[in-house]
Amino acid sequence: METKIYPGDCLGILKKIPCDSIDCVMTSPPYWALRDYGIKNQIGLEDNFEDYIKKLCDIFDEVKRVLKKSGTCWVNLGDTYYTKSGGAFLNDNLNSNKRINEIGINRANAIRGKGLLKDKNLTLIPFRFAIEMQNRGWIFRNVIIWHKPNCMPTSVKDRFTVDFEYLFFFVKNKKYYFEKQYEPIKKSSVIRSKYVRYKKGSKCEEGNYAIPPENPDEQIGLRFVNPKGRNKRCVWTITTKGFHGSHFAVYPEELCLTPIKAGCPIDGIVLDPFCGSGTTGIVCKKLDRNFIGVDINPKYCKIAESRISEFKKNNCILCGIPLKEDEDFCKTCLRVMKSKYPNKKKFKQILQWHKNHTQLNQEC
Questions:
Q1: Are 91 and 160 members of one domain?
Q2: Is residue 346 predicted with pLDDT exceeding 90?
Q3: For 276-333, what is the HEC assignment?
Q4: What are the Cα distances from residue 56, in Å, to 4, 32, 72, 361?
Q5: Which structural domain, as residue segments, surrounds residue 321?
Q6: Domain identity same for 70 and 93
Q7: I want to staple 71 with a disulfide (CB 3.0 to 4.6 A). Which of 11, 67, 98, 133 is the partner?
Q8: 18 and 164 together in one domain
Q9: Nearest of 335, 363, 361, 364 to residue 351 by alpha carbon
Q10: Which run of H or E residues covers position 230?
């Protein structure tokens, strides 16, 4: 798999990419009025959020041009309160020797108080962006809620704590590549599916049941239970992950795992025009997809290149899905193996046999 990362303004670099050459876009642009990255021509510090939306959608016009007709586009975008706050970030601590108080209140904080909205308003940036994307010809397929069970606590006393962000799913044509993704069926649904519907005096016996069973003892609900699970829903509970590098706005790998699996074929090309520390590129490497990343900050590009090059692919020994570096089996395979081998000693022996067998194959 090939990985390319380009430092520079994403709009200029996108114009150099051929038309209809990208299979999937997975990205998270800088949010409006939240951070000052200390880079000239950065996105997110426009005085007016309408200018931010226009500038962002101009970039996605180019994204639409380079995206294949069968391509998919996934955009993680958070909202902003139109309120000045005490917190401040400059350069995400890339210049650790430069203190915030040397420059006063940072630009990101200063622009949230120019009278565009009443103070304390939620600016609805994600929805303004989504509507403008529709106006420019994109097809809006899903709003996905990224629920954060370990969200940052807030000190506010007059509203609820926000524990989610949005992930928008766009396409450019009615027909596009999409591999259906599944999630586990609830145990209560599986139990109900095993009920015998045919009983004496029931609608089935009278011939009034919508789908009569083929035999009197058939567990009719099993006809509708897919062994793979049910179609994945639109609320994804994913914990935020810490990152030790010089970049605060890093989304977890799990957030882009499903979009890339669903929206990009194996050996396809994934583009992230705001690649930051390179999380999208790492997931692409795990899933055997090619990756093109762009970021205006050359220091972030170096971080991304280092993270992706150092990553060593590690898959489940039994089913092959991506795992963390220190794992050998996925949770699903472990659960199945435990049900087959309830004896702990036998269970450990079987796991060790699979490990040894895999190592022998690698040596051969």
A1: yes
A2: no
A3: CCCHHHHHHHHCCCEEEEEECCHHHHHHHHHHHHHCCCCECCCCCCECCCCCCCCHHH
A4: 22, 10, 17, 49
A5: 314-364
A6: yes
A7: 67
A8: yes
A9: 335
A10: strand 230-231
**Can you say whether residue 104 is alpha, beta or left, with left for phi > 0 and alpha for psi between -120 and 50 degrees?**
left
Total domains present in the chain: 3
Domain boundary (294, 310, 326) is at: 310
Alpha helices (H) along the chain: 10-14, 49-66, 107-110, 125-135, 187-193, 203-206, 253-263, 279-286, 298-310, 331-340, 344-363
pTM value? 0.77
Residues 264 and 357 reside in one and the same domain: no
Task: Name residue, tokens 């989504």.
Answer: 130
Longest Cα–Cα distance in the chain: 84
**Which residue is associated with the tokens 């929206």?**
263
Tokens linked to 273: 């025009």
- Residue 258, CA distances (Å) to 30, 120, 178, 261, 284 in order: 22, 34, 11, 5, 11
pLDDT digits (tens, 9 = 90+) for 66-119: 999 999 999 999 998 888 665 444 444 444 444 443 333 456 666 776 778 888
Reading the block at residue 158, the tokens are 């007059």
167 and 191, same structural domain?
no
| Residue 292, pLDDT score | 98
- Classified as helix, coil or strand, 214 is coil
46 plus 120 within the same structural domain: yes
* Predicted confidence (pLDDT) per residue in 114-138, tens digit: 778 888 899 999 999 999 999 999 9
Same domain, 145 and 173: yes
